[in-house]
């Protein structure tokens, strides 16, 4: 038994090279088979992980979009998502009070929440032809119990007003019209589901009836229209329409012909439409058409805005915005959670581009063989995610359908499978060639080598080692002779290298011994260096502080402000005196020393003032001052921060308060368009507004805060 085992071991040793080569080729063949399998499995897992990561990122972006002002308005008014843009529908605005008699202020309010629907001059145009927002106060909805607000803007040249009296008896510095159709006018059509009501609001010159003198400014007057579109009477139907004539958009153009952006605000009383004893009308059931026309030319009116033209209407946040976050075949449902019950607000779905094709291609068949889920692991999956807004809870339900074949995975299956087949074929061919073309010769060479080995063991003298029997003209004979010479040369080189390495090691030991002493002394000298250690600690603290800061978007969206009653005059005076501590010099406060009470959060308001001052000091000429002014009315306190320097481009006046918007192409000084966004966000949460306008010698930032009463 022992002899048999020994014989087998000797045979294996004798054929060790052949056995090794055959095992190696077997391993190559097995690897060529397993490589596609594991490659496909890895790519499928990576594809699923990327898909999951993409879905999570899309969900987070969608929630952030819903928490934006325009998204919040859509959550409060789901019909804005589900129904077409036109005809216009009244939305419930998140305001308890709306200053309709101040068109500029109310426009800032509705723009802050994304209410106005923009109308382009032509489809795809960059310049807005105008905008319209229709809504009611929060405490007047969803059943309309108070005034219906219609506000907006339109772009035209200088306004032509209407007058009933002879214009020659009036001191007016502009053209006027005796007929309503020859003047600028706003037309509103209101439908409550049962009846239709029409008004025309011509631009008029205010005239004092006592002395027939023209008063300053222009106004809108409401006249009820009959079914033919003709005013029923010359007596106004109600008072509650205001107009703000705009300045020249391009200040270089003549004032008589330049284009201007005008603002209007109309508050339609509840008693001027609908039966008062009828069932209450919900705001979402009201539909309106709003048109702004200029003077008739050649018998036809010039139209600036026509809300019936849905092709030019652009809603700030609609169904298409939400569908852009969905993959093909996915649906999204938003529900409001009320006392454990869910109320569906709206449901949207993005259709599947094409059905899942049948397995026909070579790559698909390979994937099917290795067990890859071609239909996708996301079929019929449901994901729920809750979020909060203004004290209410909402839930987002996202359902996924079959995503179809992954084209990249199919193409990879085809290419990898083709490489695997080619590898198997080439490995088999190489195996046959080596087995019959080389191994037979190796066996002959092995036999001769065995004889030489016996002779060597018998003689014991390497000098008698003879390779002459192994030499020949074939490749193996030349290889044997070459190997012999090569081994000898290698032995000589190894011996020389060994001596050289020993010499280098001795040299390195000497060098190390010589420099070890000075290095130890230098280490002892620097061990008690307090300035060095203190500086390092400060740097570490700075780095820790830098990477410990919160994300701006998360911080801005989640901040909650607790307002309190405060003296705004004292606050601004203190802010101006202490501005130099923040590196802002030459700040002057001009205004009352006390007596202006507002409700605000002091630290947040301080951040607002600081951000505006930092923005002003970046652009003011060196050596000039920044002025903080304060004025108040019975309703609001107005803070004006003025700095000299270049004007803000007109196309950025309304956009500089958006996140990431900056006049400078590259923020070389650390400005990333973030400070003014923070200021606008904080003021909106405190019930205030902020706007920017160009002054003759610089820029004014105007902050409006409601005055604290009682």
Model description:
With 710 residues, the protein is of the alpha+beta class. The protein has three domains: 16-68 and 317-466, no CATH class; 79-316, Immunoglobulin-like, CATH 2.60.40; 558-706, 2-Layer Sandwich (Heat Shock Protein 90), CATH 3.30.565.10. The protein is 38% helix and 23% strand. It contains 14 helices and 27 strands. The chain is elongated, with a radius of gyration of 42 Å. The termini are far apart. The model is unreliable at 355-360, 459-466, 530-551 and 666-670 (pLDDT under 50).
Produce a short descriptive summary.
This protein is an alpha+beta fold. A hairpin with a 2-residue loop joins strand 14 and strand 15 (300-306).
**What is the typical, i.e. mean, pLDDT?**
76
Which word captures the global form?
elongated
Radius of gyration equals: 42 Å
Q: Tell me the major beta sheet.
A: 7 strands, antiparallel
Summed up, the helix count is: 14
The name CATH uses for the topology of the largest domain is: Immunoglobulin-like
Domain count: 3
Strand content: 15-25%
Q: Under the CATH scheme, which class of the largest domain?
A: Mainly Beta
> Into which percent range does the helicity of residues fall?
25-40%
Which features characterize this protein?
710 residues; alpha+beta; seven-stranded antiparallel sheet; seven-stranded mixed sheet; 14 helices; elongated
What's the layout of helices and strands?
Layout: H1 2-14, H2 16-66, H3 69-76, H4 79-82, E1 88-89, E2 91-92, H5 103-112, E3 117-120, E4 128-136, E5 148-156, E6 185-191, E7 196-204, E8 207-208, E9 213-214, E10 219-220, E11 223-224, E12 241-244, E13 260-268, E14 287-297, E15 300-306, E16 313-314, H6 319-323, E17 331-338, E18 341-349, H7 362-369, E19 381-389, E20 392-400, H8 407-459, H9 475-526, H10 530-547, H11 552-558, E21 564-567, H12 568-577, E22 587-590, E23 597-600, H13 602-619, E24 626-632, E25 636-644, H14 675-685, E26 689-695, E27 698-706
Parallel strand pairs: 2-4, 22-24
Antiparallel strand pairs: 1-14, 3-4, 3-16, 4-5, 5-13, 6-7, 6-14, 7-10, 7-11, 8-9, 12-13, 14-15, 17-18, 17-20, 19-20, 21-23, 24-25, 25-27, 26-27
Helix pairs in contact: 2-8, 7-8, 13-14
């Amino acid at each position: 038994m022992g002899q048999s085992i020994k014989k087998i071991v000797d045979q294996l040793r004798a054929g060790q090279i052949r056995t090794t080569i055959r095992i190696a080729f077997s391993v190559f063949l097995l690897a060529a088979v397993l490589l596609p399998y594991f490659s496909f499995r890895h790519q499928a897992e990576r594809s699923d992980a990327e898909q999951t990561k993409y879905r999570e990122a899309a969900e987070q972006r969608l929630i952030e979009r819903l928490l934006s002002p325009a998204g919040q308005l859509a959550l409060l008014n789901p019909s804005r998502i589900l129904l077409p843009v036109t005809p216009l529908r009244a939305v419930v605005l998140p305001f308890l009070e709306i200053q309709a008699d101040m068109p500029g202020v109310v426009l800032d309010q509705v723009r802050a929440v994304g209410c106005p629907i923009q109308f382009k001059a032509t489809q795809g145009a960059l310049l807005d032809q105008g905008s319209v927002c229709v809504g009611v106060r929060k405490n007047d909805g969803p059943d309309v119990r108070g005034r219906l607000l219609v506000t907006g803007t339109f772009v035209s040249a200088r306004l032509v007003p209407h007058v009933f009296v002879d214009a020659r008896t009036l001191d007016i510095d502009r053209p006027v019209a005796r007929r309503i159709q020859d003047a600028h006018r706003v037309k509103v059509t209101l439908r409550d589901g049962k009846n239709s009501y029409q008004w025309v609001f011509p631009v008029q010159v205010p005239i004092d009836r006592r002395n027939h003198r023209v008063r300053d400014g222009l106004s809108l007057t409401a006249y009820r229209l009959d079914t033919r579109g003709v005013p029923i009477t010359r007596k106004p139907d109600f008072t509650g329409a205001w107009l703000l004539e705009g300045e020249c958009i391009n200040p270089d153009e003549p004032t008589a012909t330049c284009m201007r952006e005008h603002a209007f605000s109309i508050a339609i009383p509840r008693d001027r439409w609908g039966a008062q004893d009828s069932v209450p009308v919900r705001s979402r059931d009201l539909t309106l058409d709003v048109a702004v026309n200029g003077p008739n030319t050649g018998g036809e009116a010039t139209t600036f805005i026509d809300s019936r033209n849905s092709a030019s209407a652009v809603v700030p946040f609609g169904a298409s915005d939400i569908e852009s976050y969905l993959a093909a075949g996915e649906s999204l449902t938003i529900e409001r959670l009320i006392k454990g019950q869910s109320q569906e607000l709206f449901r949207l779905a993005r259709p599947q581009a094409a059905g899942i094709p049948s397995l026909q291609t070579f790559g698909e068949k390979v994937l099917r063989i290795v067990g890859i889920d071609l239909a996708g692991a996301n079929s019929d999956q449901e994901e729920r995610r809750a979020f909060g807004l203004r004290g209410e809870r909402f839930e987002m339900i996202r359902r996924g359908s079959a995503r179809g074949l992954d084209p990249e995975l199919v193409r990879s299956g085809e290419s990898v499978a083709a490489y695997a087949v080619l590898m198997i074929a080439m490995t088999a061919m190489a195996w046959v060639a080596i087995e019959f073309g080389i191994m037979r010769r190796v066996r002959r060479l092995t036999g001769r080598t065995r004889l030489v080995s016996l002779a060597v063991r018998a003689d014991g003298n390497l000098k008698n080692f003879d390779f002459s029997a192994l030499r020949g003209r074939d490749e193996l004979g030349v290889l044997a002779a070459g190997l012999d010479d090569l081994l000898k040369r290698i032995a000589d080189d190894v011996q020389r290298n060994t001596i050289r390495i020993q010499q280098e090691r001795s040299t390195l030991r000497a060098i190390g011994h010589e420099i070890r002493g000075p290095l130890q002394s230098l280490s002892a000298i620097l061990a008690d260096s307090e300035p060095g250690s203190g500086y390092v600690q400060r740097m570490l603290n700075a780095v820790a502080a830098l990477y410990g800061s919160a994300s701006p978007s998360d911080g801005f969206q989640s901040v909650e402000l607790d307002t309190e009653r405060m003296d705004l005059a004292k606050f601004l005076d203190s802010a101006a005196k202490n501005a130099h501590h923040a590196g802002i010099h030459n700040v002057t406060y001009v205004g009352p020393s006390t007596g202006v009470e507002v409700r605000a959060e002091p630290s947040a308001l301080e951040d607002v003032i600081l951000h505006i001052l930092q923005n002003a000091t970046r652009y003011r000429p060196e050596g000039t001052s920044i002025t903080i002014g304060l004025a108040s009315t019975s309703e609001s306190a107005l803070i004006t921060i003025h700095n000299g320097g270049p004007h803000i481009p007109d196309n950025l006046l309304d956009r500089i308060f958006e996140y990431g918007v900056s006049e400078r192409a590259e923020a070389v000084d650390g400005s990333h368009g973030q400070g003014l966004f923070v200021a606008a966000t904080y003021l909106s949460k405190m019930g205030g507004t902020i706007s920017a306008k160009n002054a003759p010698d610089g820029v004014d930032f105007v902050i409006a805060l409601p005055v604290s009463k009682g």
